[in-house]
Write the structure tokens for this entry.
Amino acid sequence: MKTLIVDDNIVNRSSIQKIIEDMGVNESAVNGQDAIEMFKLHLVHSRPFDLVLLDIVMPGMDGIKVLKALRDIENEHNVEPDKRSRILMVTSHSHKDVVLAALKSGCDGYIVKPFRRDVLIKKLKELNMAIPVAR
């Protein structure tokens, strides 16, 4: 599984990387603009991300705007719905309005920080994603 972690906080990025380090290849972006550029580059070169773990609260461009941009990129490249990247919002904000805004903008679900590996695996199963076997 190929994952893009988007979080402006280095501690959060490191924690998530540790949780998923044996689940395949993961890359990270420190802000929304970097995430959008990486996402598009990988899609254009036929190496799309299977999963994007996207923080909602980031300076400059928040996660909802990034989410919309990622979905727009997929639409521009005519990515079929079943081939789209799964995007999970990873946030410390579990407020109903924030969650609803993310879902309306095209995310596949959300996880509240901090989270454990088993929470992520459960969410991946709910999305019918293959769970990589530990190496």
About this structure: The chain has one domain: 2-126. Residues 52 and 78 are 19 Å apart (CA to CA).
